[in-house]
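Hi V.,

You were right to ask for the full record rather than a summary. Here it is.
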Amino acid sequence: MKRSAEKSMSFAKSMIPIIYLALALIYTLRFLHGDPHIPILTAAVVAAIVATLSGYHWQEIQDGIVNTIKLSMSAILILMIIGMIIGTWILAGIVPTMIYYGLKLISPSIFLVATAVICSIVSLATGSSWTTAGTVGIALIGVGEGFGIPLPMVAGAIISGAYFGDKMSPLSDTTNLASAMAGSKLFEHIRHMVYTTGPSLVIALILYGILGLKYRQTELDLEGIRTILNGITTQFNITPLLLLPPLLVIAMVILCIPAIPGLIGGTALGALFAWIFQGSGLTEIVKAAHYGFVSGSGVEAVDSLLTRGGMDSMMWTVALILCAMSFAGVLEGTGMLREIALKILSIAKSTGSLVTATILTCVGTNIIAGDQYLSIVLPGRIYKKIYD
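Predicted structure:
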């Protein structure tokens, strides 16, 4: 028998799983030094228990989970293909070439500007701001220290470039997930970010240019940069022709080519370039696509940056997305998200207040949960229908 008449969901009940999730994540990440997967799954269990006590059948809860996971399947497929692209592009020397020519931009008069640009290029090529900051960023910190430039200023330039490249890269997991949660197409999402992320970078570059003028007479110590360049050239044949695939990715954005076919084409191009320019065999190409590329230059910064990629490298993120979508699915399928959205709507009565509420919810979720994926999934599901 259906018990729809007995269903009783409220805002207070809806907040129980949210509060539990925040506490479970804080405890697990801070004190147990674990990953967020299990806390999120247990939060889904708590949400299911609350829903069951409120009159919902398991089938309704399960349908909510399955329907919500379906929304993320495109992003999951894209992430798996991205892992393949990164592996084959590094093997082909495409990513190393971008890093190589990026580091060639260094000069004393425009060090801060060049730092932001280089980090943008590397992050755009790898789809990872953290990897960029932890590898090329460290090398640039050393150069900036030699210049006598305040290190917080150098760090700011690194972060500006790294996050710009990450957000604008079709290889970024968070960019893919955000577009999936909002229900938009990947390249359409990237094109619209030009209106906000583009001016932000331009303003930053102008300010870095002004701040860097006082350091233009400083002599540049190229030893750290030269070490990275040598580490790259010992492993790869570097040629401007290897910049062709990234240019084709930009063309895909402009021409609105669907993400999955376009990225599969990028993977095939990476495999072809690996064979032509690096002499890689089919075994190496398949391994790089599946397990990623392993750098053996002996230069720690280079090996740390280039040992990455492969479909397997995305499985941690895919598992986390599935856990988060399961939690969001219970909330959405049982009306909890609706109750939370109605409470927000009672406060946000205009476009401006809705945008402000969205930003504050994302920031707040990220602070409480310590996880950027969850701060994309939950607000994405809460606010999508409100914006519609």
